[in-house]
Specification:
alpha+beta, 2 domains, 2 strands, about 25% helix
Length: about 90
């Protein structure tokens, strides 16, 4: 594509032969919409089995390091939570 003068999506002519995946992405870009693969999402969701672990953590990125070994704007976890969801919906 580069040799044909295509350096950005908007440079792709409508007559250019693209694969199905490329065409979907170009069409989505032109329409300013995302591409959602519903089959892949369904497959992922269907593969989830109980118990389901919900892990969350918070980080801090101080400009001035507070402790030895820290770096400016480094990401340091300081709090977490883990919730285990059972098949009956209980946590």
């Amino acid at each position: 594509m580069y040799k044909e003068g295509v350096v950005a999506v908007e440079d792709i002519p409508d007559t250019m032969k693209l694969t199905d995946i490329q065409q979907k992405k170009v069409d989505a870009w032109k329409a300013q919409k995302g591409v959602i693969n519903k089959e892949a999402i369904k497959g992922l969701v269907d593969s989830i089995s109980y118990p389901i672990y919900h892990f969350d953590f918070e980080t801090l990125g101080p400009a001035i390091p507070e402790f030895k070994g820290m770096k400016p704007y480094g990401k340091y976890p300081f709090q977490y939570s883990l919730h285990i969801e059972q098949e009956d919906g209980s946590l």
